[in-house]
Design a protein that fits this description.
The complex is a heterodimer of chains A (about 230) and B (about 250).
Chain A (H helix, E strand, L loop, with lengths): L2 E2 L6 E2 L4 E4 L4 E4 L1 E4 L2 E4 L3 E6 L2 E6 L11 E9 L3 E5 L6 E4 L24 E9 L5 E4 L6 E3 L3 E4 L5 H5 L4 H10 L2 E4 L4 E5 L2 H16 L6 H9 L4
Parallel strand pairs in A: 4-8, 11-13
Antiparallel strand pairs in A: 1-3, 2-7, 3-6, 5-6, 7-8, 9-10, 9-12, 10-11, 12-13, 12-14, 15-17, 16-17
Helix pairs in contact in A: 3-4
Chain B lengths: L11 E2 L2 E2 L11 E5 L7 E7 L2 E11 L13 E8 L14 H14 L12 E10 L4 H15 L8 E9 L2 E4 L3 H6 L2 E8 L4 E5 L2 E2 L3 H36 L1 H8 L1
Parallel strand pairs in B: 6-7
Antiparallel strand pairs in B: 1-2, 3-4, 4-5, 5-7, 8-9, 8-10, 10-11, 10-12
Helix pairs in contact in B: 1-2, 2-4
The chains are: A alpha+beta (about 230), B alpha+beta (about 250).
Chain lengths: ~230, ~250
Amino acid sequence: MEKVFVNDKDIVIPGEPLAEGFDFLPAGKAFREDEKIFASTIGLVYVKGRVIKVIPLAGKYMPKRGDIVIGKVTNIGHSGWTLDIDCPYLADLNIGEASSEYIDLRKASMNQFFDIGDYALTEVTAISEGMFVKLTAKYRPYRRLVGGTIIKVSPTKIPRIIGKAGSMIKMLKDHSNCDITVGQNGLIWIKGDAEKQALVSRIIKVIEKESHLPGLTDKIKHMLEGGK
Amino acid sequence: MGGKFGAPDKMIIGGKRLDGRKPDELRPITIKAGVIPSADGSAEITQGETKIVVAVYGPREVFPKHMSIADRACVECRYDMASFSTPERSRPGMSRRSTEISKIMAEALMPAIYLEKYPKTKIDIYVEVTNANAGTRCAAITAASVALADAGIEMRDMVVAVASGKVDGKLVLDMFEIEDNFGSADLPLAYMLRKGEITLLQMDGELTKEEIQELVEMNIEACKKIYAMQKKALQDKYSVEKKAMPDAGEENGN
């Protein structure tokens, strides 16, 4: 009864049957119902031995513990900051998590650390029962992101932008001499030469658009070397 | 039916309907995914003369806060007919009818969505009918399902919907405006193909038990055809981008 209904790298839609039989394991956005495995989102399917994996092609960011995210400060409260990390929930950065040193509010005001409108690189430490996201910026490399530019891409494309073992992002960094920081939530901070900054933003948009197509790495290399 | 003003004498002539279709034939349908770039997901459907655009936003924060559900997402649908969508100008804004369709649309789509994966969030579905020519609630459900998939929302299955009815004593599929106005019954149905579950079943008019059974089967057969179109629309969105970049393929060859 073991049977695979799809080919490797097929585009599948929600509810599409992928495989039949208990020998197969669903991974990514695939789920099992009785004997069969189905896709739960639109995505690319990967068949590797017994594992049937669906990589989504679209979707919003849902926070997970341990994710490194870039957030925008939207509010300053009595004991912390509220950050917009582009997900359906509010994210909270407590004052004790903002710096490795003790912050004495009699001597310093809170907007010296993070002001409204600032971007910060943080880590998700917990998601509470009430779906409040707790962040930390206590240790390096978590910090306020000064200067540079922020671009937004679909969070499902982040793995492609990073590449296999960081190959794509390394190529971008080496060719452009820019400082590039990628948040799991789809926000990317680029700092460097103004011209290079614009080039990197443009290239990342190309990666986002063509992430599911073959020959992408060659194309990006070509663009980085001054080609169209 | 002949009694109604403006009704044609006969609506089925020589086994064919007024627009030349066979009784169990669908109108020509085109579905396109991803038509609104600023929405999280969107779709456009034309079914004969009926034309509908659907936008999906979410999962996103719930406003007002008390609407949120602790363990799953809530779905809100807004079905609206453009004032120019009907032969007579329709008053803009929600009417008794559009409030009802909004509710039943959300309820028809909810069983397909993995709501428990998005606790305390909201999924908004905005439906805009730009040209109404019968069968709008079904076409809207079909398109909304494509828009939800386009938004990357996790779903158990796609929802497909189609209406059928009774005209001149004959059972017909996917009625157009004249048949809808002067026919004797109308039966919209929304269906999830994978498990064979019906998520919406309404009926207006007079039908016997046998006729209802026959219409339900006729609708389900048509749903299978529309499902193939939904799938093609979603796959096309990503292969169209492939065609727009001809050099991507060439470089791969080098």
